[in-house]
Amino acid sequence: SVRVRLVPAPRGTGIVGSPVMKKMLGFAGVADAFSCTCGHSRTTENFMKATFEALRATYAYLTPDLWKETQFVKPPLQEHTDYLSQTKEVTVA
Fold first, then answer.
1. Tens digit of pLDDT for each residue in 62-79?
2. Which helix (H) or strand (E) holds 15?
3. pLDDT value at position 47?
4. Cα–Cα distance for residue pair 66/64, rounded to 1 Å
5. What mean pLDDT is reported for the chain?
């Protein structure tokens, strides 16, 4: 059995790994990644299956472009201080 760990790499690094890993990640559209394997990685079939499972597991994570839009609401105390800080002209007769 083989365990594959994929780690995001800085932009421009490329895929750091074996030729099989590079080809599979290239087909998946991954441009920059570090990889780490543990187990019997010399068996190409097992290694490819483990790489595929690692790629499949990455789709469970949300990237920032998929996050929902955050709606910021002022706390009640902030609204009150904003109201009090508004200057009103007072006329003295």
1. 777 777 888 889 899 998
2. strand 15-16
3. 93
4. 5
5. 88
What are all long-range contacts of 47-50, with beta carbons under 8 Å and residues at least 24 apart?
47/2, 47/4, 47/18, 47/20, 47/21, 48/20, 48/24, 49/2, 50/1, 50/2, 50/3, 50/4
Q: Which amino acid is at 9?
A: A
* Mean pLDDT of all residues in 50-66: 84
- Amino acid identity at 49: K
Asked if residue 62 lies in contact with residue 45, where contact means CB atoms within 8 angstroms, the answer is no
| Alpha-carbon distances of 52 from 9, 24, 45, 87, rounded to whole Å | 19, 8, 11, 63
DSSP state of 78: H
Residue 58 has pLDDT above 90, yes or no: no
For 31, the 3-state DSSP assignment is coil
